[in-house]
């Protein structure tokens, strides 16, 4: 990926005419009508495809680990299917059997004598799970700060739990954060009943030290002091090789970078939503939101319902298309994933959270089991010596399946399901 950076340095570029001029210019007219093309970025697409089944597998590991015997029958796991983002036509047991290096299958008998699959975890998977718990404990302050900052971005410092649950994987929150994290910080968080009768999480106190965006922190190092004081902060911009930015778009982007930067933590109700100044504020909000995620990316559908909480205008996600030098939209896995370009060098995440390292190890464990399974190394269950037929459905009945994977097609591509509404007693 070819990278260049458009930072505001007055006098450094001939095309910059000063921050005040840009501010006045944009208040005389609305949004500039420019359209930048989408160009495939194979490196960032590979980041998305590499994690295709990781989230669903990790959620299942958390659910199984939380059970008393660390083993659950398939009908108990099926209750959580809505949170796994699996395709409707894919049986849960078929998905689990893809990864014998993580899940161990045994059987129990249901009423009527039917044999029901049960799943536990391999020692390797259990070890990674316990390591993750240790990492979460060691980085508790970082986790709490990111959750605080997310709520500080919203109106009323509140988010519905359903919306927060869609982001918890990207934020690095534990699966059971509602019970394992929130109750330990009653001075910071509270569950509330929203006007639409949903349950929400509310931040109880504002932390001025946290109300500084990552762009503002970086500007102290990358930009001149007078530019930072003027508020004309610019976003790092980079394009895929062969992007070919037109002259008109280049001139607009250079001028747009000189516009005043409005912190995503400040009140922006005075901004006209039909101007480029307001658009820059929206870009800043999502720039900060992606900075709060540990992979610096999230699915587009996860932010599509944030318009009201973040006080954004209609069609706010159009900024992703208008600014492909800041955000990349990957269309892999039958969904759209928004990635912060500056966070990656090709496929490498530049700053890795400890949880990311553990998830990468978990991905390698999934891959190992899938490859070993394709070689026929898991034809029999190690737990009870019963041969496991991969074409058996959830209740032990035979079914036809086209689940024979090749090494080149390691994971499935699918549309995501919406997570279930969490139930919290108030």
Commentary on this structure:
The protein is 36% helix and 12% strand. It is an alpha+beta fold and 426 residues long. It has a three-stranded antiparallel β-sheet with strand order 2-4-3. Strand 3 and strand 4 (115-121) form a beta hairpin. The N and C termini lie far apart (50 Å). This is PORR domain-containing protein. GO terms for molecular function: RNA binding. Residues 39-369 form the PORR domain.
How is this structure best summarized?
GO terms for molecular function: RNA binding. This protein has about 425 residues and is α+β, with helices and mostly antiparallel strands.
Q: Radius of gyration, Cα only, in angstroms?
A: 24 Å
The spatial strand order of the largest sheet comes to: 2-4-3
Shape: globular
Number of strands: 13
Q: How do the SSEs run, as a string of H and E?
A: EHHHEHHEEHHEHHEEHHEHHEHHEEEEH
Please give the share of residues in helix.
Answer: 25-40%
How much beta, percentage-wise?
Answer: 5-15%
Summarize this structure as a short list of keywords or feature phrases.
426 residues, 16 helices, globular, alpha+beta, coiled coil, disordered C terminus, RNA binding, 3-stranded antiparallel sheet, PORR_domain, PORR_fam, disordered N terminus, PORR domain-containing protein
């Amino acid at each position: 990926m070819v990278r260049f950076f458009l930072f505001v340095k007055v006098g450094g570029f001939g095309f910059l005419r000063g921050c005040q001029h840009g501010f006045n210019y944009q208040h005389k007219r609305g949004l500039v009508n420019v359209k930048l093309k989408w160009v495939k970025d194979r490196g960032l697409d590979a980041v998305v495809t590499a994690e295709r089944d990781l989230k669903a597998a990790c959620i299942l590991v958390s659910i199984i680990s939380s059970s008393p015997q660390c083993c659950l029958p398939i009908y108990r796991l099926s209750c959580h299917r809505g949170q796994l983002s699996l395709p409707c036509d894919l049986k849960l047991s078929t998905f689990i059997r893809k990864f014998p290096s993580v899940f161990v299958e045994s059987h129990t008998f249901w009423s009527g004598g039917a044999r029901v699959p049960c799943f536990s975890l391999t020692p390797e998977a259990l070890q990674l799970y316990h390591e993750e718990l240790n990492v979460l404990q060691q980085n508790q302050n970082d986790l709490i700060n990111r959750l605080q900052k997310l709520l500080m971005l919203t109106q009323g410092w509140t988010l519905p739990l359903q919306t927060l649950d869609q982001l918890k994987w990207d934020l690095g929150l534990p699966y059971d954060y509602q019970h394992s994290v929130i109750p330990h910080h009653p001075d910071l968080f509270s569950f509330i009943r929203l006007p639409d009768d949903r349950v929400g999480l509310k931040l109880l106190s504002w932390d001025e030290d946290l109300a500084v965006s990552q762009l503002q922190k970086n500007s102290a190092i990358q930009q001149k002091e007078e530019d930072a004081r003027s508020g004309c902060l610019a976003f790092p911009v980079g394009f895929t090789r062969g992007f070919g930015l037109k002259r008109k778009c280049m001139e607009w982007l250079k001028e747009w970078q000189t516009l005043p930067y409005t912190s995503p933590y400040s009140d922006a109700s005075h901004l006209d939503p039909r101007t480029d100044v307001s658009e820059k504020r929206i870009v800043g909000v999502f720039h900060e939101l992606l900075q709060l995620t540990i992979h610096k990316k999230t699915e587009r559908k996860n932010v599509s319902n944030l318009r009201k909480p973040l006080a954004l205008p209609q069609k706010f996600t159009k900024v992703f298309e208008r600014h492909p030098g800041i955000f990349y939209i990957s269309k892999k896995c039958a969904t759209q994933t928004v990635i912060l370009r500056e966070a990656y060098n090709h496929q490498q995440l530049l700053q890795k959270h400890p949880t990311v390292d553990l998830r990468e190890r978990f991905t390698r464990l999934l891959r190992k089991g899938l490859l070993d399974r394709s070689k026929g190394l898991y034809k029999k269950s190690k737990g009870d010596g019963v041969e496991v037929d991969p074409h058996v459905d959830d209740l032990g009945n035979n079914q036809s399946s086209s689940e024979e994977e090749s090494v080149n097609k390691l994971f499935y591509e699918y549309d995501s399901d919406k997570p279930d509404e969490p139930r919290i007693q108030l």
